[in-house]
Amino acid sequence: MDIHTQAHKDLSGGHLHTRKNNFASLRESLTQNFGHCIKQVELMGQDYVRLALKPPVAEGYVDFIEFAPDFIAVISNICFYDDMVLNYQGEDWIRFNFKLSGGMSLGFDGQNDLDIEERSSHIFIQPKGLIQTDTYHKNTPSQWVSILCKRERLVDNLGFNPEQFPAKMDDFLSCGKGDLFFAKQKLNFSTEKLVMSLMNSPQNLLLRPLYLKAKIYELLYEYLDGMYCADETQPTALGLSQKDINKLDEARYLLENDLLATFNMKDLSRKVGLNRNKLSYGFRDHFGITIFDFCKESRLKKACELLRTTDKSVIEIAYEVGYSHPGSFSSAFKSHYGATPRFFRNNV
Fold it and tell me: Whole-model pTM above 0.85?
């Protein structure tokens, strides 16, 4: 039985009837994989457990949230200070993994290891008894969200009609019970934003479980909606090829990693090798946001990080993220986050 399945079985009760026994049983099952780096196992609620990890082996946490006995979510924010190998035994669950950052590889019995890229999602079914090996690279903070459920929950409990599945979704729901299924793709902008919101959940312990569950459902919806609507036999409205999409990814990378650059559409289209029409409309269609709004959000996201982690003044931060007028920065920040930069720094 894998660690996630054991976790949800312990949480759902079974033969364990008290919170104390649930806590003890969960600690025992998690220790099999994380024993030497466990700092604390906290029951945050009847259906919410946090596993805190300790230096020098690792640092961070893993949250387990149970929706039902056959539907759980795992939120991980970990940095291992040495290469870490974890083994899980398959229970024929569907796993939706959304990786925001960090280096890792994934392997199965008799299969070559797969490198899991940052800002990517992958879905797989691990047949019962098949061993999965996760290798986490040292000194690389790793953030990801996993949603685990049984096929029956998607088909029955969530109300999907199998006869209406497009080929892309039907591939994994109809694969044989003993077959390994694996597929991956890049995170789009809206999905990445949801994963980030789960990493930065409210500190209010009373409301956090409600917030996390709402965001998990939204994340699952976004992924399935994209899969359901994808028609692999038809080009996009702009006829974007994979080469075009790679160039859009390059444009996004340039905009996100050089906040002080003053790219205009002509310069950016020349730099990545796309005409202005494909760059402008393709960026919006592929990432779900205009180039202008993406630049604005990237600058404000970086500003949040600097406000939380440095003692730099608001004026210094404004200039560092590409604003030439601190007043414009403060106005944009308040409009986006509902608070001034100073209030954000003092209260978040």
Answer: no
